[in-house]
Write a structure and sequence with these properties.
Strand content: 5-15%
Shape: elongated
Number of domains: 2
Length: about 120
Amino acid sequence: MFSTGAYNGNSRQASHWVDNKYTTVGSCQTPSVARGIMDPTAGKCELMAVTALDLAAFDVIGWNIATGARDSGTVQFTSTQIATYTGAVFNAAAVPEPASWAMLIAGFGLIGAAQRRRRAVAG
């Protein structure tokens, strides 16, 4: 059973996350069925609200909910606030070049060959 109540989800995604269906009102997308924070996307001008029910759902699916988190009221944010948020800096980790991987593998090969030769000489 997943968020849609159907076995294996809604054939679009089988998880506890499910997207809202949107209608356009003026220049804003408005969800026709609100699912709170369990919606993985936010439409233009959509207000996302984290309620006590959302936190309880996270608790049920195994997320660690901090003590007192449900007592702090409702946290609200809009997609516009998210799009213009500049408070966090995300740095991507360096990815090794293929030549670095080749050198690492060759080094392990040389160490293995030295160990094999040492055993042959000792035995």
